[in-house]
Amino acid sequence: MDKKIKIDALARVEGHGGITVEIKDNKVENVRVEIYEGPRLIETLVIGKTPEEDLNIVPRICAICTISHRYAAIRGLEKALGIDPPEKVKLLRELMHLGEMLESHSLHVFVLALPDFLGYSSVIAMIDKYKDDVVKALQLKKYANKIMRVVSGRMIHGENPIVGGFGRFPTKEELLEIKEEAKKMLPIAERGVEIMASLDYPDYAEANTVFMCLNPPNGEFGFVGDSLLFSTGEEYDVEKYKEAFSERVVSYSFAKRSRYKGQPFSVGALARINNIGDRLKGKAGAYYRKYHDDKWLVNPIYNNLAQAIEMVYCLEEIPKLIDKIVKMPDCEIVKPERLTGTGTGSVEAPRGTLLHHYEIKDYKITKSDIITPTAMNLDDIERYIRIAAEKLVERKEIESMNLQLEMIARAYDPCISCSAHLVKVIRK
Predict the structure, then answer these.
(1) Could you tell me the pTM of the whole model?
(2) What are phi and psi of 331, to 5 degrees?
């Protein structure tokens, strides 16, 4: 039997992508995850620009991961310029980042992923039976948006975080209000964990892979670090990221892809939980110890549950951060120690490790390299889709294959706009 499975528009993800599976004589011959999204050309656009101009441009890669892009860029630019920001600045950046992580995860877990498991076409279709959960999930997302607005200046593309500090510091009253609301939001995140943990996870896409995430300092769980930690035990300084993995292109996609020692690998919440989840404390740590098992190491669909646990972590960390921040005085913007230098900024975006590398001469950017989580994940997404397709053909479940394959792609919570950020045109 010959058949082509063609998903032209992958639903409930950010950006435009599709899946093609070609089957001949009951064997899977070809699998492609195709990215139609137009390239952003960001890395070329920032050449010749000042660090301030760069910060106005690079977050426009995406409106979902805007804070992560700004944060990674700031960290890379500050390294290049010899800036070590004050502790209050570092903590506020961490707070705004937790807001984005919470906003993105709540959207994905409750609105984008959950309908698949419960047999609904969309979250709107769930309202009759799950109205309370849907309403509370939107309350959680709104709260996370508030954190981003208060700290970064706007919910999307906030301009308040700048090289060397902040344009304006949030007031004590604003921060304490966020702290109190975090306590009210925590039960919603816990409900998300319990829902995702109660579901049946399909076994048609199981295989070993390598996981990569940042290694936060002091043996803690977190979303910021300066070294790349692989599940193999290998670790690389972020400045040596080109030694850790390599980028490549394929003919049917605008997006770059990455490989570790010639093989696909995964980043994201599942990678973070698998690599450093044993560092989690409090309720998030309790959920990790209750639900984490060997299945998480081979099944990418558990990324949904990993994100749910990270929501609990964020809401437990927010009050702790604010307690520290409100005790600190506001501080001046730190000026550069030099105008020429090189630096790589690294943060964990909601979808995984994000790197911004800059070379600066006379306060102008001469080179930029941006490596996004979805670009790192694409080869593994495609590999797991092939594994699933082969298994489903073997089980004679071809007619219902579309949804199963989409669930794998959606589990990675891909940010397709971020992945398609550069194409090189060569004239001959």
Answers:
(1) 0.93
(2) -135, 160
